[in-house]
Design brief:
- With 268 residues, the protein is an alpha/beta fold.
- 40% of the residues lie in helices and 15% in strands.
- The protein contains 7 helices and 9 strands.
- Helix 6 links the parallel strand 7 and strand 8.
- Keywords: Oxidoreductase.
- Pfam families: adh_short (PF00106).
């Protein structure tokens, strides 16, 4: 007997789906019965995913800061799969924990524009391009936030500000697009991925070896885990499924319990 899959018959677009959390979510969605369009930049990785998943996937090479790329992804998804149920706005870049003091003056404008264009404007454009089709299916939008959308020291000031902006975007769109479209987010904590600081900040990043980074991440949350990308899949699947039909304007904090850290070192 075939076991029912929570996303059977659903169609999703995942931006930034060629690596890290986006790729993990795309793979899980396919496993759960969905058809997936990935919008990404790496032609090599897009081709590899297309070869691996065949008819279950559609890949589109594009730039999330360009509205035309989102339009293309939506149009090709409709042509290939006939509808759109889910948008996962996941594409994002990082500032490498570069603090205000270490931010290079000569790259301030470039760093701010690059991070906000991809992390915030890219999400807004994705939602705009997909909204009319999502209304038809009473679908949903899921944004990838970050623990830095709620707490300090999850990045530098530019990245942290961009993720706070996404939380605001989720709440506003959840209000505006109800009742037809649900809008939510997932806020991963420190996760072992290949994400690095944008190029103009690379020289200002404090270097740390992978093993130390992993230990540092685990030490910061109550569950003492350095998450892998796939550790967040359950939250993305839940929010995309009909099991979450009463949930909108919510961010699931998949971060090892950062909100209950308490006062470090305090015992009574």
């Amino acid at each position: 007997m075939k076991v029912a899959q929570s996303l059977d018959g659903k169609v999703a677009i995942v931006t930034g789906g060629t690596n890290g959390i986006g790729e993990a979510v795309a793979r899980e969605y396919i496993q759960q019965g969905a058809k997936v369009c990935i919008l990404g930049r790496s032609e090599e990785k897009l081709n590899a995913l297309q070869e691996e998943f065949k008819d279950n996937i559609l890949t589109v090479k594009g730039d999330v800061t360009k509205y035309s790329s989102h339009q293309e992804a939506v149009q090709k998804t409709l042509k290939r799969f006939g509808k759109l149920d889910i948008l996962v706005s996941n594409a994002g870049v990082f500032d490498g924990f570069v603090t205000l003091e270490r931010l290079p003056e000569e790259h301030l404008d470039e760093a701010f524009s690059t991070i906000f264009d991809i992390n915030v404007k890219g999400g807004l454009m994705a939602a705009k391009a997909a909204a009319e089709e999502l209304k038809k299916t009473k679908g949903n939008i899921i944004f990838t936030v970050s623990n830095s959308g709620f707490y300090p020291n999850g990045g530098g000031p530019i990245y942290t500000a961009s993720k706070h902006a996404i939380v605001g975007l989720i709440r506003e769109l959840a209000y505006e697009l109800a009742p037809e479209i649900r809008v939510n987010g997932v806020s991963p904590g420190g996760t072992i991925t290949e994400i690095t600081a944008i190029s103009c900040l690379q020289d200002s990043v404090k270097k740390i070896d992978p093993e130390t980074r992993k230990k540092n991440i685990a030490s910061r949350n109550p569950l003492q885990i350095a998450q892998e990308a796939s550790d967040h899949n359950g939250a993305y699947v839940l929010l995309a499924s009909d099991n979450a039909k009463a949930i909108t304007g919510t961010v699931i904090e998949s971060d090892g319990g950062l909100g209950v850290r308490g006062m470090p070192g305090m015992t009574f």
